[in-house]
Amino acid sequence: MGDFMRKKDQEDQIVTKSNALARASWKAGSIWEGRVLAISALKVRANEEIKTIRIMMSELLMGTDLEIRDKTKEEIKLALKKAIGRHITIHEPEKDKTTYTVIFREFVVNKKDNYIEVLLEERVKDHFLNLQGYFTQYNIEEYQQLTSTYAQRVYEFLCSWSNYEEPIQVSLFYMQEMLKVPPSHKQTFGEFDRRVLRKAYMEIHANPNATFSYNYYPVRSTKQGRPVIAIIFVIFKCKNRNKEDYYQEDKNPAAISNDEQKLPCQQSLAFETETSEEFRGLFSHALATTVNKWLIHCREKNQIYKPTAYKTLIKTIKEKADAYGDDAVIYVIEQTITAPKLNRLEWQLIKTKPQKKPDDKPISSEQADEIINAAKVSQDTKDAVRRWIKHSNCNVIQVVKQVEHKSKIIGEERIIDDIEWAIAQGLAELRF
Question: Is 154 exposed, middle or buried (0-12, 13-18, 19+ CB in 10 A)?
């Protein structure tokens, strides 16, 4: 009986909506709109005949530090007032259909009894019911840990693809249009990345109980200037977390425009090697980064690793690293990349690796601290550099010089953001 009730409680916490609604194009004015829509989905699924949906303030505030006070109620009231008539565009490619409608028809905010009542547009409500294979599911508690509209939208979008076995490639225009980002956020890919994608990534991964994690990777055009034209998302199911499979498999891959490049196998796998939990246990950060360089080098020469060959390559590199050490393997890869006529890793180069001089002593922690303190940057930047050194165990002198130089070009705030981003992704080198 107890197991049955626990399973029933879990099912009651699962938001279900169509993939089309999860990927729809609309601009959320506040996090309350996303929360209201998600909770409405739960209540509609529980009672299909329901017309007006009642949501308690306590349900709406779940996962936040906010209390039910007059100030909070007023904030919610003003946010929902602006949400009336919010336009949404819903594409259903399997039906060759596009719907242009609104989400919310009416709100009633009862401050005395601490609840709100919602009247949804019927065409939106239909996307919670009678779903035939193409739907998205996620846990409402996990969703309510998110505190920004972009994180909410990216989270739902990724949930709609979470059981798709291959990396997902979508055009940059599609992503910006889906999120309805303002012009200031999409002048360059760097702006879109910093203001939208990176913040959503940090927020989604801040939840230690998340049922999945992901990485993303920009795809550049071969045209002059090599602008970013698409984004690749690689989704991983988290290990040792909730093992319930909430996501319905969707066999329809995202559409890729004719202008976009096809995705070579190792383009996504190279990124996965450096960042995923599976490979973090196999390679050190330095070796993972070098393997990544090799795969990118092969891609640029149109040498494609098929999945079986890729696994063999990873296994061989692991065996060589165990036998000769990471430094020797890194040396072989770097020498092969720089050699003009070599198209495969030449392991006999291990014998030619120069030996480290006995007097090459590592820098002590006290010396590293002195070098960082002497850097011509702010204290916040110095603290970020310390965190990076602790994370990557790289050359302190080289990092300090790099930070001093780049801070004059892109500013220290961007330097700190990039360091935190690299640490969060588990990277082995900075990507200013």
Answer: buried
